[in-house]
Amino acid sequence: MKKQKNSNGKLTSFVSILIILILIVANQLFGGNLYNFAFGIDNIDANNDILDNTTDSLSGVEDSIELEKEKLNVLFLYVGQADCTLIQKDGYTMLIDAGNKEDGKNIVAFLKHIGITKIDYLVGTHSDEDHIGGAGDILENMEVSKLYMSSIGTGKWYYDSTIDKAKEKGIRIVYPELNEKLFFGQDIDLVVKSAEKYEGISSNNSSIVLQLTYKNNKFLFMGDCEKESENEHFWEQVDVLKVGHHGSNTSSNENFLNQVKPRYSVISVGKNNEYRLPNKYVISRLEKIGTEILRTDINESSFWFTSDGNIIEKKEVSINLDKK
Ligand SMILES: [Zn+2]
């Protein structure tokens, strides 16, 4: 009897070890998510990095956002001294720039929080960190169809690493030409207004500039475009202008502003930034054309525009995705 007991004990231990081994192998096969699979936890939310970050980052999101499906939505997100603009219409999604490197995961968490997991166009306007620093996180964690990049920037770390990440993920990279159109649903006309091939000290003038027209409403997104580039083109009157280069005096010259004459001018700029932007001369040039100036730094907030093609509505929302 005693002998049999021992034999049974050994058998039990052997079976236990076997079960543990099977579970370890199965967990590997499920990509480490067997626990989540077994307990019904969503795989995306179960990603520790994102989960930790989501909890942190969403502390900066006080207003709930539910994009208006029937309308065009344009959301200028506060990412400190950087740019990040979300555009959505008819299920098409574009993200123009992705903040600084520290903001990347935060932006991903916010997008998922409002139900966006797929981006049709990720546009890195130019090679500077405050525009494409967070692009790697977007490419890594979102389903991105196409990456639009300026053709200038090779040799700069953020530029090269963004390109490398897109290649690694098999995402199509497009270097757009002037006047190139991007399809964004039937009622939208989205065109590249500037994509210069400047090789000079400043990469700002290589910014991809996009103009979006939805029926009677126009939006112009300038990136960090400066006066050299502004002077090279003719501009149409628009309703909303994303002011170039965070309100720096290198941009928004009088001649340009007199052409675009926006009703609203959004300046994406960090609170107490070291560059002391927006520049006071830019502010006075904007005031001179009678536009409503909306600064993200005043309340560290974001601006949300909706348009039905005729009427534009704007709302300041308490969304702060800056991690610096
Ligand atoms: Zn910038």
Q: Could you characterize the architecture of this molecule?
A:
- The chain has helices at 2-29, 34-39, 48-57, 104-113, 129-132, 135-141, 157-168, 227-230, 254-260, 280-288, and strands spanning 72-76, 85-89, 92-96, 118-124, 143-149, 172-174, 188-194, 209-214, 217-221, 240-242, 264-267, 292-295, 302-307, 312-317.
- Helix 3 (48-57) packs across helix 4 and helix 6 (135-141) runs parallel beside helix 7 (157-168).
- The chain folds into 2 domains: 2-37; 67-317, Ribonuclease Z/Hydroxyacylglutathione hydrolase-like (Metallo-beta-lactamase, Chain A, 4-Layer Sandwich).
- It has an 8-stranded mixed β-sheet, with helices on one face.
- The model is unreliable at 1-5 and 27-57 (pLDDT under 50).
- The protein contains 10 helices and 14 strands.
- It is globular.
- It is an alpha/beta fold.
- The longest helix is centred in the first third of the chain and has 28 residues, at 2-29.
- The protein starts with a helix and ends in a 7-residue tail after the last strand.
